[in-house]
Design brief:
- The chain is of the alpha/beta class.
- The protein contains 5 helices and 7 strands, in the order βαβαββαβαββα.
- The protein folds into 2 domains: 101 residues, no CATH class; 34 residues, no CATH class.
- It has a 4-stranded parallel sheet, with helices on both faces.
- β6 and β7 form a beta hairpin.
- α1 crosses α3.
- The longest helix has 15 residues.
- The protein binds zinc ion.
Length: 161
């Protein structure tokens, strides 16, 4: 089966980052109109995720009522049954590109000293060259993921993190 791909509308920047952090191919572009959005979705076989009720009943679209990014994330994970497909920290949060592992010695001087001293695993984005490591944000997302998994998967509200 082909990998699921998303296209988030301009209201959903944070959700797009979360989805990327969980390893899902998620396109997010500011300032594109409906026509372009639908064109991208169609040609790249992406599901439109949107806050625009115009898409409420449309095929291959998910309309989100809540503007809370964490709730949105849970809805998407539930809706498409993505829990088993999560691959944390495999994608650049900015470019949506798959990151590549890199040797620790290669990042010397390119990451904060403390990070270099305390972390062993690094990856980088071949497009923007950003270097990633398992930091606080990653840890929070991991905990959040455990929380929603333990709670059984179905949509809940009021998750705080
Ligand atoms: Zn990048």
């Amino acid at each position: 089966m082909e990998e699921i791909k998303f296209l988030c509308d301009f209201m959903l920047g944070k959700l797009a980052k979360y989805l990327r952090m969980f390893g899902f191919d998620t396109k997010y572009e500011k300032g594109i109109d409906k026509i372009k959005m639908e064109f991208i979705a169609k040609t790249e076989n992406r599901i439109i995720i949107t806050r625009n009720s115009y898409y409420k009943e449309k095929e291959n679209c998910l309309f989100l009522e809540t503007d809370n990014p964490k709730e949105q994330l849970i809805i998407v994970l539930d809706k498409f049954n993505l829990y088993e497909k999560i691959k944390l920290a495999t994608r650049c949060l900015i470019c949506n590109e798959l990151v590549k592992r890199v040797d620790k010695k290669e990042v010397k001087g390119k990451v904060p000293y403390y990070v270099y001293q305390t972390k062993d695993e690094f990856s980088y984005c071949p497009i923007c060259q950003r270097i990633y490591w398992a930091g606080t944000h990653y840890k929070n997302m991991k905990e959040f993921l455990e929380k929603i998994k333990n709670a059984g998967g179905r949509s809940r509200t009021g998750t705080d993190f």
